[in-house]
Amino acid sequence: MDRRTKIVCTLGPASDSEETIRALIRAGMDVARLNFSHGTHDYHRQIMERVRSASRAEGRDVAILQDLQGPKIRIGEVEGGGIDLVAGHSIRLTSQVLATSTCDVLHVSYDTLADDLSVGGEILIDDGNIELKVVGFDGRDVRAEVVTGGRLSSRKGVNLPNIRTSTPALTDKDLADLEFGLSQGVDIIALSFVREASDVKQLADRVRSQGSNVLIIAKIEKPEAVECIDEILATADGIMVARGDLGIEMRLSKVPGAQKSIIAKCLAAAKPAITATQMLESMIDNPRPTRAEVSDVANAVLDGSDAVMLSGETAMGSYPVRAVEVMRNIIVETEKTYLALHALDPTGDTVDVTEAVSRSAYWMAAKVGAKAITCLTASGATARAIARHRPHVPVYAFTDDHRVVGQLALSWGTKAFFIPFQCDTDEGISLVHDMLMDMGLAREGDRIVVTAGMPLPAKDRTNMVHISTL
Description:
Blueprint: E1 6-10, H1 18-27, E2 31-35, H2 41-58, E3 63-67, E4 73-74, E5 82-85, E6 90-94, E7 105-107, H3 113-116, E8 122-125, E9 130-138, E10 141-148, E11 150-153, E12 157-159, H4 172-183, E13 188-191, H5 197-209, E14 215-220, H6 223-227, H7 229-235, E15 238-242, H8 243-249, H9 255-269, E16 273-276, H10 291-303, E17 307-310, H11 312-315, H12 320-341, H13 353-368, E18 372-376, H14 381-388, E19 395-399, H15 402-407, E20 414-418, H16 425-438, E21 447-453, E22 462-469
Parallel strand pairs: 1-2, 1-17, 2-3, 3-13, 6-7, 13-14, 14-15, 15-16, 16-17, 18-19, 18-21, 19-20
Antiparallel strand pairs: 4-12, 5-11, 6-10, 8-9, 8-12, 9-10, 21-22
């Protein structure tokens, strides 16, 4: 295992062929993200089939992450595919559907726009590149002045800083996309624009009622979500620090501190943290990143991120495979420093049996010079608990659930394998030993720390840890 931090790649027009997907896997992609803000169900179905086919061909498990659009506010189609807004120009914003928006009137997909805004309020479009100021109202329409102009193309996002919008956590589109994703067997679902824990619970209740154990990731991109991160983290299975919209909705200077704090909380809770947005943004057009971007990826690794994510770089960039290679190289070099500096104290109060076992496995591996830590896990919880301690050796998880194999692709330093639990614990451990040697992951004489539940399978009942010599 050359690195512990995982790489999430967004697939799109630049990377949706099976040939390119295979190249991305070889370069280091662990999780394929499908952005449901764009594309039809047929398109996404084809991409999932290609990811699974490429994964089989390359002999590497790649998880599929469905990113729901959420209550994102957008403008409509614009005249000629693009319009120029000029500073000082007056413009009207309406929730009424228009054939095309122009320099004089823009459709905005938010019915209560006039209710939530006030004179002097700020409206940001296209990741904050265009700024409008509210100057008045005409019935349900908003009159605004262009403060910062620019070129505006269709369906760009709209942000209303310091406004608590009244949009639902799950839109009708999200519900339809969710049903589709579950029917296609996605491994991970990301919920956009989470504001509070009840938003996540709404999704979790709907998913669990259908008997799915899909991993639910809460995307933190609004200030109110940062304020109640503890409650959100307790409800979600993991967190994505989505710095794009977060950096528009709150002061940019506050984003780095929020990122570090959220990742630290995820680490303490043994839940995966993804750092996302504009990590290697310049590589959309250039074959080399800026030095600041290299530092950004490195700092996300040093913060303790389980995964770092590429968006436009792989979805629509000119160098999708190169971007993954660059990110992998940054991770490999940075982890040398991270692993040298990071040593979690295994002492302290023990919360439960799983934590006691995972902490012991981490400590034992360090003390006896183990080659790896292996765990037989039904749900993946033990593997995530071990990964939380950031051990210096790989964590190999063995599970009888294909979905868990995919979900653990997001967890730091963890590689998962499928095995049927049709034996007792001793036989299962012996099978794991044979697989490790057959795959070249361990050799005769190596020491391995093993965790498992007795009897096997034992869901939510990991209760054994010991040292084996192969």
